[in-house]
Specification:
101 residues; alpha+beta; Arc Repressor Mutant, subunit A; 3 strands
Length: 101
């Protein structure tokens, strides 16, 4: 017996659209890719890896943290970030693998 697809409530669609909007910035995707690959990283390492200015990297990381995608940990003068949303890695891999085909 076939089951009918479930209609997604409008509120969830709105939240999903907001999430995709946050992920629509290439710098944010690059930062998430680095965090996915390397695990927790400090801001300076992310700046060096991306070639972006520290202010730009910090701005994007702050937004990702506000959205609950990454967590921030202070250790002395350094701020470390890590991914805390388990859906991000799978989502990015799914889309990127489809694009590479």
């Amino acid at each position: 017996m076939e089951t009918q697809p479930t209609l997604v409530p409008r509120l969830l669609l709105t939240q999903a659209a907001h999430r995709f909007k946050i992920l629509s910035e290439p710098v944010r995707l690059e930062l998430l890719n680095l965090l996915h690959t390397n695990g927790e990283m400090n801001v300076q390492d992310l700046v060096e890896a991306t070639g972006q200015h520290q202010a730009n990297v910090s701005k994007h990381l702050r937004l990702l943290a506000e959205e609950g995608m990454v967590a921030r940990r202070k250790d002395g003068l350094y701020a470390f970030y890590r991914i805390i949303d388990p859906s991000l890695s799978g989502l990015c891999l799914l889309i990127c693998s489809q694009l590479s085909e």
